[in-house]
Specification:
- This protein is of the alpha/beta class.
- The chain is built from 6 helices and 4 strands; from the N terminus they run βαβααβααβα.
- It has a 4-stranded parallel sheet with strand order 2-1-3-4, sandwiched between helices.
- The radius of gyration is 14 Å and the shape is globular.
- The chain starts with a strand and ends with a helix.
- 40% of the residues are buried.
């Protein structure tokens, strides 16, 4: 059986998507499912390519036990739509940008929004915390924890 693959996408791949990657990996480990999945993250833009996650995001994530170790990279449409089963955007603009990179209905079917998997929170998107304060980083983690549980449940029940 091949691994299911999930790519989380935000604008720059330094706050939300690397956090989603770390939270998802932790949740998969908690559920003893880590061997069944491959998880990665990327940004719509390559502005932060090669950089670690934002220090503030790292600090808030670490306080919850999540270690953000990924290095930012830009979405590679020609490769990512081929390699990943699920490509998950954090907000409306990410979804618009991802849809513009698709080449087929099969590519489109791989796309979903992170908050589609939330059960405890009713947000339309995972807001970008970059220009805000500590509460924004905490909200991102709250939403990601909720959504990752929902995503695992959805995929495992397919």
């Amino acid at each position: 059986m091949s691994k299911k693959s999930i790519l989380f996408v935000c604008l720059g791949n330094i706050c939300r998507s690397p956090s989603a990657e770390a939270v998802m990996n932790a949740k998969l480990k908690q559920h003893h499912l880590e061997s069944k999945y491959r998880v990665d993250s990327a940004g719509i833009t390559g502005f932060h390519a090669g950089e670690p996650a934002d220090r503030r995001m790292q600090k808030h994530a670490l306080a919850r036990g999540y270690n953000l170790t990924s290095i930012s990279r830009q979405v590679r449409a020609d490769v990512d739509f081929e390699e990943f089963d699920y490509i998950i955007g954090m907000d409306d603009q990410n979804m618009i940008d991802l849809k513009s990179l698709t080449n087929s209905n099969e590519d489109l079917a791989k796309l979903s929004r992170m908050t589609d998997y939330c059960s405890e929170y009713s947000y339309d998107s995972v807001p970008d915390p970059y220009y805000g304060g500590a509460a924004g980083f905490e909200l991102v983690l709250d939403l990601l924890e909720d959504a990752c549980e929902g995503l695992i449940s959805k995929i495992e029940n397919e």
